[in-house]
Structure formats: structure tokens, C-alpha cells
Specification:
The complex is a heterodimer of chains A (442) and B (157).
Chain A: H1 4-22, E1 32-38, E2 41-48, H2 53-60, H3 68-73, H4 80-95, H5 101-132, H6 137-143, H7 145-166, E3 175-176, E4 179-180, H8 190-211, E5 225-228, E6 239-242, E7 247-248, H9 253-256, E8 257-261, E9 268-272, H10 282-289, H11 295-303, H12 316-337, E10 353-361, E11 364-372, E12 378-384, H13 386-403, H14 410-422, H15 429-433, E13 436-441
Parallel strand pairs in A: 1-13
Antiparallel strand pairs in A: 1-2, 3-4, 5-6, 6-7, 8-9, 10-11, 11-12
Chain B: E1 7-12, H1 22-34, E2 39-43, H2 47-53, E3 59-66, E4 75-79, H3 99-108, E5 115-122, H4 134-155
Parallel strand pairs in B: 1-2, 1-3, 3-5
Antiparallel strand pairs in B: 4-5
Helix pairs in contact in B: 1-4, 2-3
Classes of the chains: A alpha+beta (442), B alpha/beta (157).
């Protein structure tokens, strides 16, 4: 439980995190939150976050199409695969090619690796301490060492997939437009498969573990947006759908979504043109694709008390754990069926065109659009990361949550506000991990 | 891992962010000097990977860039077994989980090596680019010499 001293400790850490954020190439600024309360009314909620991918859009101009996957992978150290995959799919869309067979499967596999490492990190080291009443994973580890060790090993299993297919675990270098530079043969997966069998059991245990947590109540009329594919739980392909009637091809993204600059912040916020805020990420994927989860993942979700739709964002930790399980299960399925392709990549023939790509990053849809000239040089680029798409929803969650919990102690409220932000695993985890909350009463 | 006390030097940083790469530079110079007598690792600083990197080692030295407000080139040295590493002392490009946190999590899990020294050098320039600033280069030379002496003692040579 938070205490006054804990609050002081957080304030102290917040100061130091300002320095810390200065060092992060991808997160140049700090996450901050201001909730204004007048009497018994929340009057304003502001989440301030910098939006580094803007720079990438500018310096992608003038670069060759083939450079986009490696350049955009640098946007994020936790989800580089998402950027590489969206960039590849956009370029392949521009060039009119579609990847099938083992190369397509390997793309799903490397994405499984990213989901496993990202979800394990968030579930165990970033979010679980909120539910168990610890300041951080370090303190939690003293009382729950086995769980933390399990989380670290799960994360490592995901890293291993990315390392094997990507060449290295951070900013992988083996992904290219058209496929990979080099692909493994089947026997290279042997050791990995054994570890993934352990990981699948550990992920099942994770679902059971988090299902027993206590969850604050929050229920809003969200619009969930995710990819949906007729045959599979979405990673790389599908149509963009929502629970409120959206059903569009990826290339129709810009006609339906808009990014807006909010004057108080360097962050752009996305919204649906016709409606408003929307919700992307594991919970959106789950709610729109429950039927595509593997039987094991569906069974685990039901065992954890979830139905095919889960709306309380505080339960996102369960959904994230179900996806962790699914990613292990799917990775094993792909490895089992894998046959080495004749060539690691298909040939890409250029044409003057605009390409669109959208894939499911661990935190939700990651949209890329590139316009290419006749030499394959990028003339224009647009990248929309998942976090900017959730910002409005996070602010609205916080407004409603604070409004309905004004009576609880301020420290407790601050704690749960931070927890509410972490429900979305924003890709500025470091900044929000040191979130500074100002509760201003007039 | 070699038989006997396994000695691991871990350089942390990003060599394309100027002084942030100082840990990598120190590691490489020690590798040139000791070749296969010790294990030298280059790490980005991702916390979970760090905890894993020293697993099984008995003598570990970490080298990373620091930004604490001290003059550039200032050398900080911590005995991580003896005391807690000040959080916020070590920063690098990863999410949520820093070197200091990795060490403290390792301590909570009883997964710290018996000997764990951390060298931090105050950086001056962390902009994109290669090469170290002058005061950092001088400090790197000093740290390499000090580290080499300590490694020799550990190797008993």
C-alpha cells in the first residue's frame, strides 16, 4: 500500500528521472500527468508525452525504400520488430508483392518473440507491482522471487526468438523488404523449441497468477480497434476493424483516422474522424479476435474468468498474459511446421507508388505509409505508433477514474492513476514509470 | 565459461551516441589486452539481459556512462556488493529497467556475483555520433589501467 514516505520516494525518483529521460533517444521528455479538480469535479486531465517518431518521418525522406526497416527499428528498443514489419509491409504494398509461405511464417515467429519479451517485461516487472502493492519489481522480488525469475526467463525466451531470426535482440538487423537476409534451417530451432515449451507452461502459470489479483473497477464505452484476419490471430495482416462498425483496408487508414497536435504537448493524439478516441493493444485485439486465439489460450482466458470480451482496462494484465501464452503456443506451432524456404527473401521490383502497412505491435496497431519515387527513394513518410493512438483513451480513463474515486486517499488515488496509465503499457514505459501526477484542487 | 573464477567485464552503452559508448571502448581495450583470459561482453544496458550476462561469473566489472552533474571525465566507482547503486546514476537507451535497477533486482533475487564493481565515467556529449570527448577519453585510459590492474589481481598474474 502506498504511504506518505512512498510518495516522497516517488517524488524523489521523479526528479532523477528527468535526467534519465534526457538520455533516451526515443523518449525525449518526460511523461507527466495533471488532473485538475474543482470542488468535487474533475475539470481537466492532461497527459504530456513527447512523440519522437516525428523526427523519423522527416529523416526517412530521401532515403532508399530498403532502408526503412532498419531506420524505423531504431524508434523503439522494445518493439523494433513492429516498426520493421510495418515498414516492410508498406514497402511491399507499394511494390505490389505479397509474402507467403515460410517467410511469412518466420515473420509471425519473430513477432511472437517480440510479444513474448515485451509482454513478459510489462506483466512481471512493470505492472504486477501495482497490483501486489510494491513500489517496483525490485521490492516485489524480495517477496516473490520465483515469479520474478519466471518473468525474466520468459522475457529471455522471447529475446532468443528475436536473436535467432533478427540477428540480435535489440534493433535486429536481419529483416529486409521481401523477407530476411538469412533464414535458419530447421535444426537451429531445436534448443529454442525446448525453451518455448517451458515458456508455454510458464505463460499458462502467468495467466493463473495475474487472474488472482484484485482489479479496480472501470467500465467505459470504448471503441476497440485492431487488425482482424480471417484465419489467424493478427500480427502482420488483416483489415482494421472495431466494435463500432469500422471495417476498412489498411490503405484507408488516413481517411478514417486523424492525428492532432494538442497545444500543451509535443505529442500528437490520434482519433477516429467520425467518432473520437479509440483503444488499441492487447485488449482491443482480444475483444475483436477471441475466436482466433488457440484453444489453449481461449481455455486459459476462460479459466481466468474472462469472457470473449474484457472491457475493464485494469484487467489488461490478464489479457496481456493470455497473449503471452498465445505467442508461445503460436511460436511452437510455427517451429513445428517450418520448412526452410529456397530463398530468404523474394525479389522486390520497384514502381512509383504509395504503400501502406499496419501490424500489431505489442501495444497495438503501428501504421506506416510511404510514397516512393521511380528510384525507390522515400518522398514522404507517415508513422503512427500505438501509444499516440491510446493517449486520448488514457486521459479519458483517468478523468472518469478520478471522478468516481475522489473520496479515496490522495496517495492511493495517485497510485491507481499510475496503474491506469500502465494498463496501456505505453511505449514510453520509462517515462510513465516515473510518472509525475499533479492533483490540483481549486 | 572457464574453469576457476570466471572473470567478466561488461561494457555498456551505445557507441553511436558519442560518450555513451565509453563502456564499449573500455571493454574492447580490455579484450585486446587479456584476449581469452577473461570474458568481455558488450551490452546495450537492457536490464534483464544484464542480469543474465553475469550469471555464473564470480568476478564482474561493469563500465557505463554516467550523468550525475559532476565534471565530464569524473570517474565513479561503486562496490555493488557493499552498497546500493544510486538509482538515476546510470542512464541509457532502454525502457523502464536500468543498470542500477538490474543490480538491485539481482540483489533481491540473490543473483549478484560475489565480486561486482561498477565503474561510471561522467559523459559530456551524448549526441548522435561516434568518438569520445577529450575529458572522457582521458578518463577511459585511466579506467582501463585501473581495471587492468584489478583483472591481473583477480587472475593472479
Amino acid at each position: 500500500m502506498p504511504t506518505q514516505s512512498l510518495s516522497a520516494e516517488r517524488a524523489r525518483r521523479m526528479k532523477s528521472s528527468t535526467i534519465k529521460v534526457d538520455y533516451l533517444a526515443r523518449v525525449e521528455g518526460e511523461g507527466g500527468l495533471t488532473v485538475k479538480i474543482k470542488g468535487q469535479q474533475v475539470t481537466d486531465v492532461k497527459l504530456r508525452i513527447f512523440e519522437p517518431p516525428r523526427f523519423f518521418e522527416a529523416f526517412l525522406r530521401g532515403r532508399k525504400f530498403s532502408e526503412a526497416p532498419d531506420i524505423t527499428a531504431r524508434i523503439c528498443g522494445i518493439c523494433p520488430i513492429a516498426y520493421q514489419m510495418s515498414a516492410c509491409h508498406a514497402m511491399e504494398d507499394a511494390c505490389g508483392i505479397k509474402i507467403t509461405g515460410p517467410i511469412r511464417d518466420l515473420r509471425r515467429l519473430i513477432y511472437c518473440g517480440e510479444w513474448i519479451e515485451s509482454h513478459a517485461l510489462h506483466v512481471y516487472l512493470l505492472h504486477a507491482p501495482d497490483f501486489l502493492g510494491y513500489e517496483d519489481a525490485i521490492r516485489m522480488a524480495k517477496d516473490h522471487p520465483d515469479e520474478v525469475k519466471r518473468g525474466l526467463r520468459l522475457k529471455k525466451a522471447g529475446n532468443e526468438i528475436v536473436r535467432l531470426l533478427g540477428g540480435r535482440e535489440i534493433h535486429p538487423i536481419n529483416v529486409k523488404v521481401g523477407g530476411f537476409y538469412k533464414v535458419p534451417d530447421k535444426k537451429e530451432f531445436c534448443a529454442l523449441a525446448e525453451e518455448l515449451k517451458w515458456a508455454r507452461d510458464a505463460a499458462l502459470e502467468t495467466v493463473r497468477w495475474v487472474a488472482a489479483f484484485a482489479f479496480p473497477e472501470l467500465d467505459r464505452d470504448y471503441e476497440f480497434v485492431a487488425l482482424r484476419h480471417p484465419d489467424e490471430y493478427p500480427f502482420n495482416e488483416g483489415r482494421l476493424v472495431s466494435n463500432k462498425g469500422l471495417d476498412i483496408a489498411i490503405r484507408e487508414y488516413d481517411q478514417n483516422f486523424i492525428e492532432e497536435h494538442v497545444s500543451r504537448s509535443n505529442a500528437l493524439q490520434s482519433r477516429l474522424k467520425e467518432r473520437n478516441s479509440y483503444f488499441v493493444g492487447p485488449q482491443a485485439r482480444y475483444n475483436l479476435n477471441f475466436d482466433k486465439l488457440s484453444p489453449l489460450a481461449q481455455e486459459a482466458a476462460r479459466g481466468a474468468g474472462l469472457g470473449p470480451v474484457c472491457r475493464n482496462p485494469f484487467q489488461s494484465i490478464i489479457v496481456r498474459s493470455v497473449e503471452l501464452l498465445y505467442a508461445c503456443d503460436e511460436a511452437l506451432r510455427i517451429i513445428e511446421n517450418y520448412e526452410m524456404p529456397d530463398a530468404p527473401a523474394v525479389k522486390v521490383e520497384l514502381r512509383v507508388s504509395t504503400g501502406y502497412g499496419c501490424t500489431e505491435a505489442p501495444r497495438g496497431i503501428c501504421y506506416h505509409r510511404y510514397r516512393l519515387d521511380d528510384r525507390g527513394v522515400i518522398v514522404d513518410a507517415k508513422i503512427v505508433p500505438p501509444t499516440s493512438q491510446n493517449l486520448k483513451t488514457i486521459e479519458e480513463d483517468l478523468g472518469q477514474f478520478v471522478q468516481s474515486h475522489l473520496v479515496i486517499q490522495k496517495d492511493r488515488l495517485q497510485w491507481q492513476c499510475e496503474q491506469a496509465v500502465r494498463n496501456y503499457d505505453p511505449c514510453i514505459s520509462c517515462a510513465t514509470h516515473f510518472l509525475k501526477l499533479h492533483l490540483e484542487s481549486e | 565459461m572457464k574453469a576457476g573464477p570466471s572473470i567478466v567485464v561488461i561494457g555498456i552503452g551505445n557507441e553511436y551516441r558519442s560518450d555513451d559508448g565509453l563502456g564499449i571502448v573500455v571493454a574492447r581495450r580490455l579484450r585486446e589486452r587479456f584476449l581469452t583470459k577473461i570474458t568481455v561482453l558488450e551490452e546495450s544496458g537492457e536490464g534483464a539481459a544484464l542480469i543474465d550476462s553475469w550469471k555464473g561469473a564470480t568476478w564482474v566489472m561493469l563500465v557505463d556512462a554516467v550523468h550525475s552533474g559532476a565534471p565530464p571525465g569524473t570517474i565513479h566507482c561503486f562496490d555493488a556488493r557493499a552498497a546500493q547503486i544510486p538509482t538515476g546514476f546510470f542512464h541509457y537507451s532502454t525502457h523502464a529497467f536500468s543498470l542500477a535497477e538490474a543490480i538491485e533486482l539481482g540483489r533481491s533475487l540473490n543473483q549478484l556475483p560475489p565480486h561486482l564493481m561498477v565503474y561510471g565515467i561522467e559523459g559530456e556529449n551524448f549526441a548522435a555520433g561516434v568518438g569520445l570527448s577529450h575529458p572522457v577519453e582521458q578518463a577511459v585510459e585511466q579506467v582501463v589501467e585501473r581495471a587492468a590492474t584489478e583483472v591481473c589481481e583477480a587472475l593472479k598474474i
